Amino acid sequence: MGYEIDFLPVGNGDASGDAIAVRWGNPGNYQVLLYDGGTKDAGEALVQHVRSHYGTTRVDHVVSSHPDGDHASGLSVVLEQLDVQRIWMHRPWAHSPVIYGYFADGRITEASLAARLQDTMRAAYELERSALRQGIPIVEPYQGQAIGPFRVLSPNRDWYIHQLIPAFEKSPDVKPGLWMRRPPSGIAGALALAAHNVGQWLLEHWHIEHLREDVSTSAENESSVVLYGVFEGEGVLLTGDAGVQALHQSAGYAEINGLDLPNRLKFMQIPHHGSRHNVSSSSLDRLIGPRILLPGAPTDKFAFASAGKDSQSHPRQMVLNAFLRRGFQTYATRGRTLCHGRQMPLRQGWGAAAPIAFSERVEAWD
Question: How is the chain split into domains, by residue range?
């Protein structure tokens, strides 16, 4: 059984997003999964990609990793133009009867909380409405569920409902003492940090890594659906915008269930376009394996990052270096479609992409 994974370009300037297509099977019996759809324009490109390169309009599974617009918006286009059999997405507003009492404002009701979340997560809510109009089954993806050949590694259902939704940047303030303050990072914070660090650099070596353990990302990002699949013995990991908490949760589930990711993983999506606020040395060690001793060793492992064509903040070289140390060749979309596959038909006019090399100069933290 062959498989191929396509990362389509999303975003201009410093903006990035995700639009990923996966096809597997044998000639005459292929299946298709789409993981995120980027912006509306990216959704149109994703539809055309499935039609032209996969030769079909049928999509077996659509997965919306989390409710951010740069991941969910394009999937509405997919649902309208392709024959989608099932969509996997979280619906935070559906859990308002359980969590509405968690918030400090005593005027919040089940209905008002649901309406607020639907309004502030407009792209995801429109995706749900599109699926309902067309009669496409909707399933919320949680740890342990199977989606085709993939298994959901994160999020755990209780963690998602009782901790992540209340901590969303788009949720009201929770009652004092219920949870720690929601992570301060977000799009504005990331861009401010990028601007602050222009022209400031650190020196790295193969045996010196500057990733931090105390980094955090938004609860929305941590809610990303992390998928792990195996194709003819080769492990594939899709991470969305997952952060350190979700990566550790994924690693823990994999360890308990004997999935052996460090030895079986051959392809991985670099979380959140290569942001250094989403990975740490310990989370990568658990998930993909420890650092190798010698640089330049032959490898059959690959890691892709979705990055805007002219992005100055994605992917971070510090993050790429971390993947290189663990035996992965690294690539970034930057305005082009990247494809990784095994035992699939060759595409006329497609050629090999150049990997991103290790660099001893990385972006400074402060």
Answer: 2-345+356-363
Count of Cβ atoms closer than 10 Å to residue 322 Cβ: 28
CA nearest neighbour of 85 among 39, 147, 6? 147
What confidence tens digit (pLDDT) does each residue in 285-310 have?
Answer: 999 999 998 888 888 999 999 988 88
Helix (H, G, I), strand (E, B) or coil at 330: strand
Both tokens of 272, joined, read 């959140």
Which residue type, as a one-letter code, is found at position 87? I
Residue 277: CB atoms within 10 Å: 23
CA 242 to chain centre: 6
Q: Helix (H) and strand (E) counts for the chain? A: 13, 18
d(CA 105, CA 361): 48
Can you give the pTM of this predicted structure?
A: 0.93
Residue 188 CB partners (closer than 8 Å, separation 6+): none
φ, ψ dihedrals at 62, nearest 5°:
-115, 130
At 5, is the secondary structure helix, strand, or coil? strand
> What ranges in 67-206 are assigned the alpha helix state H?
69-81, 96-99, 110-120, 122-134, 157-159, 165-167, 187-197
Which residue reads 């290790």 in tokens? 358
**Nearest 10 degrees: Cα torsion 31, 341, 228, 27:** 20
Token pair belonging to 43: 């959704």
Reported as a single tens digit per residue, the pLDDT across 144-201 is 999 999 999 999 999 999 999 999 999 999 998 765 444 444 444 444 444 444 458 8
Is the pLDDT confidence value at 1 over 90? no
Q: What is the pLDDT of residue 69?
A: 81
Q: What is the predicted pLDDT for the residue at 15?
A: 67
Q: Categorize the per-residue pLDDT at 14 as very low, low, confident or very high, splitting at 50, 70 and 90.
A: low
In CATH, which of 2.40.440.10, 3.30.465.10, 3.60.15.10, 3.30.565.10 is domain 2-345+356-363?
A: 3.60.15.10
